[in-house]
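Protein of interest.
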Amino acid sequence: NKLHFALSFMNIIDALAILPFYVSLTLTHLGATLMELTNVQQAIQALRIMRIARIFKLARHSSGLQTLTYALKSSFKELGLLLMYLAVGIFVFSAVGYTMEQSHPDTLFKSIPQSFWWA
């Protein structure tokens, strides 16, 4: 079935991966004024991220990537717990950094969210 093949997950990923090239090519031919729009450039950059998704296609042919995928799927809960501990640690240490630097007049930590980057 050609329609089923065309709408398969891997073919959709391939189409989304090459779409930014054709969008930027079309916008280049339409004129430079459209390329100056910030929203258009941001949309093209977001579509370029889809190139990373082509790795999924390689996973079918590589036993190493299949093993890595299986390992990540089987340790999903543990990785989630690790990320939660990381988020709590960042929050705690950014709050501590903000509290310690609050009395300094030239501090870069104006708020706790600004100190997240440091933590």
Observations:
- The chain has two domains: 1-74, 76-119.
- Residues 94 and 116 are 5 Å apart (CA to CA).
- The chain has eight helices and no strands.
